[in-house]
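Practice problem: predict the structure.
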Amino acid sequence: MHSFLYNRKVRDTLIQLIFFAVICFGITYLALNAATNMRDAGLTSGFDFLFQRAGYDISYSLIHYDPKTSTHLMAWAAGMVNTIAFAVVAILLTTVMALCLAVMRLSQNFLLSKVSLCLVEYVRNVPILVHISVWYTLSLMLPSVRQAFNFGDVSFLSNRGLSIPSVEWNYGLLASLVFAALWIVLCFFVKKRVSTTGRRIISVLLMTVVLVVLASLVFTPVVSFTTPKLVGFNFKHGWTLPPEFIMLIIAVSTYSAAHGSEVIRGSILAISKGQMEAGLALGVRPNIVMNKVIIPQALHSIIPPMTSIYINVLKAAALGSVVGFMDIMGTMGGSSLNITGQAIECIVIVMVSYGILNLILAAIMGRFNKAMQLKGR
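Answer:
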């Protein structure tokens, strides 16, 4: 018995079992306590409310949502799609702006370097909520619809948002499946024939364009564009991005780019100066040495911290509730919660939704990071 208790493996296992039992006890206690309080307050638990009529409007939704007939489940789906759309656009903008700010800061040009320094130090030292409020206030100063900024008669910017041409898919289900099958075959062919990732991406893009052009010439146009037109007091047709969506993207992207630029700058500075000096000694232009030699080597140390910044960008969608942007938090954690009173269920749905999205994003970045490491070594 003495030797059994002093066995390290047995002792570690017992400690883990006790720790697991304490966690289970805590969760059970909290669940029973919540159930008792809800029963005393006359509240019902469960997720049946998801199939009840939502009854509130969502100002901007990329999927069909009717406040008169749609359920809370559809409201959650609309918020989920809005969150994903926001995250994709904001992450792309963050990456581009962070790279530009980092290169400007490292530039030998005095003006570019100091402008980048001032922007980064100002933006990253002011809370993100202040940035969102400032940008949203600026959006309220935009002209009305009739005095909207005109960008070549195809896009218009007003206090109603940014109206841009919409893209419509003209093929039916069967034709779309055939088109997708051809595209997958072409991608498989490119993967077998082209070795490098960069050339593979360019080849896939070119093959996609060729496929779209050939299908449009032989059959009907694959896609069609509809430009917005001013009809009455608002723009009809096209896509209209509301000011809440645009300003939230600008605020979050600039704030995250300020942090990301320092990550990129630090990673570039970690590369030996001899790399740049060797390239210049061979007569290669500095921008080519930066693009072909320095940045590819710096990617190994850029990707992990940038993953954390991307996750923060995705989570920042929840801050859109302060300006009326309906993401998961605005729909399920805001309007649905207030209407149904199902606080625990709504918050659990919000937490699980954001958790799943962040895990997917982390998995994608982890796979990308692994690919870069294998390529470098």
